[in-house]
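hey
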């Protein structure tokens, strides 16, 4: 590193080139979305905590997903570089693995219903949750250590609205090959790998559903999986486009829009999808409202 290089360099976030009026409008919109995100995910956490009928492995993992979604938006506030990038990567990887755990839960529930309570024990659920969080923290820590060893010279304008790792690497001096390989390897391991496992799980689930003779039984089985599939499609689809699809050097603006959706809109869509398409969540909400009226 040169003499003028600090341990944690300061960057200028370019963000979106917009006029003052549009910035005020977007500030109001994003603030509303952020508050809605906290309220919606907080409601899910509250319902799962208060309603004993939701104390099952599926909603155990959903509570972790709600915590991650609330943290996602909060981690993208202007903070120190180390905290910002570390938290973002940790939450991203953890959510990938939590979604895989949820797909396995659905696989066991539909394909092996008689053994569900034995297989999906609270011990296994706890191990899966701890493994997810640990993997996210370790990968983020590895990226952060390699990132802080780089030197920076000339302009430090990061073409994004937060310190997104690929955007920051573009303003680094020297050889960033190792960093890029770690990002790509992490994308394959924690994006392509989980998607493959989820596809295999749902192939078995689809075959099991097709073997159900009653139309009502098939509809009920599909409804238990549809919410999770919607979240998986949105989350992994955008992430793979940003971190796995090769960059041709002309997709910076597209990536900023995708990152905005990924970090702000997606965490808000998750509780809406699980609430609107989940009969048990709607029933738990109705019971909670009824209890409040009776007091």
């Amino acid at each position: 590193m040169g003499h003028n290089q600090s341990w944690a360099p300061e960057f200028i976030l370019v963000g979106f080139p917009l006029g003052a009026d549009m910035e005020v409008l977007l500030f109001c919109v994003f603030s509303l979305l952020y508050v809605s995100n906290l309220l919606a995910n907080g409601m899910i956490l509250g319902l799962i905590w208060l309603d004993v009928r939701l104390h099952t492995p599926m909603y155990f993992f959903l509570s972790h997903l709600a915590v991650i979604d609330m943290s996602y938006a909060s981690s993208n506030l202007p903070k120190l570089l180390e905290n910002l990038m570390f938290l973002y990567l940790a939450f991203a990887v953890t959510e990938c693995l939590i979604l895989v755990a949820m797909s396995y839960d659905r696989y066991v529930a539909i394909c092996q219903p008689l053994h569900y309570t034995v297989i999906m024990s609270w011990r296994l659920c706890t191990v899966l949750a701890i493994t997810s969080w640990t993997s996210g923290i370790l990968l983020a820590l590895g990226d952060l250590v390699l990132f802080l060893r780089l030197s920076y010279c000339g302009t430090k304008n990061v073409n994004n609205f937060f310190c997104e790792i690929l955007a920051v690497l573009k303003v680094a001096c020297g050889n960033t090959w190792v960093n890029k390989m770690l990002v790509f390897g992490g994308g394959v391991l924690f994006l392509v790998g989980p998607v493959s496992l989820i596809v295999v799980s749902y192939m078995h689930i689809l075959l099991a559903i097709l073997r159900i003779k009653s139309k009502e039984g098939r509809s009920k089985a599909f409804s238990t999986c549809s919410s999770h599939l919607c979240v998986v499609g949105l989350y992994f689809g955008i992430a793979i486009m940003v971190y796995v699809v090769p960059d041709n050097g002309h997709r910076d603006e597209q990536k900023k829009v995708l990152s905005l959706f990924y970090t702000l809109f997606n965490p808000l869509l998750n509780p809406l999808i699980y609430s609107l398409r989940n009969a048990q969540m709607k029933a738990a909400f109705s019971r909670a409202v009824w209890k409040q009226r009776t007091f």
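DSSP finds ten helices and four strands in the chain. Confidence is low (pLDDT under 50) at residues 1-7, 77-83.
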